[in-house]
């Protein structure tokens, strides 16, 4: 990495990520859950998120972090696994819609390769690098800005569930390097067992 990572305060995220968080909250906790989250936010953040969230527009990464932390504190019992569930919910929404062929193929590698095209559109600045380590171990490296706990953990939840949606079993995603602890990048190691072969068609 030759370009130093900028502080999160100078990084931006697409509204679609924030809109997916709202959908996660409304689906899981109802509209009153969303109102609770809004009420827990500082006034400036509340104003920004109260109206319509435009998917294609840029918002500050700190606003995303405030939102995620408010969801975790207010509705998630302050349990960081809430961030995993947020990421998984994003995968559930995005994948079947954006990459139906990848989900249908039941080949996690096909899906992860397809994500390469889309990943760079969601944060700015960001550098995304993909590596196929083995047929069941894929590495995604993000750099560009210094991340935060909700972002890193929700990314783990996203990749985990994305591979599961494609039939991958025993999925384990770890961060082998993290910008939060001074690393040059957020490096996600995505490992799984291959999908079971489809059984023979049943006569009925
Ligand atoms: Zn990280």
Summarize this structure briefly.
Helix content is about 50%, strand content about 20%. It is α+β, with helices and mostly antiparallel strands. It has a single domain, classed as H-NOX domain.
Tell me roughly what share of residues is in helical segments. 40-55%
Q: Work out the count of structural domains.
A: 1
Query: What is the fold-level CATH name, i.e. the topology?
Result: H-NOX domain
Largest sheet: 4 strands, antiparallel
The share of residues in extended strands comes to: 15-25%
Word description of this protein:
- The chain is 50% helix and 20% strand.
- It is α+β, with helices and mostly antiparallel strands and 204 residues long.
- It has one domain (8-193): H-NOX domain, CATH 3.90.1520.10.
- The strands form two sheets. The protein has a four-stranded antiparallel sheet, with helices on one face.
- α6 (108-119) packs across α7 (149-165).
- The longest helix is centred in the N-terminal third of the chain and has 26 residues, at 15-40.
- The mean pLDDT is 93.
- Bound molecules: zinc ion (ZN).
- Residues 147, 152, 175, 178-180, 186 line the site of zinc ion (ZN).
List the helices and strands and how they pair.
Elements lengths: L11 E3 H26 L2 H8 L7 E3 H14 L6 H18 L1 H6 L2 H12 L3 E2 L2 E8 L2 E7 L5 H17 L3 E9 L8 E8 L11
Antiparallel strand pairs: 1-2, 1-3, 4-5, 5-7, 6-7
The protein binds zinc ion (ZN).
For the structure shown, list the relevant keywords:
alpha+beta; 4-stranded antiparallel β-sheet; 3-stranded antiparallel β-sheet; 20% strand
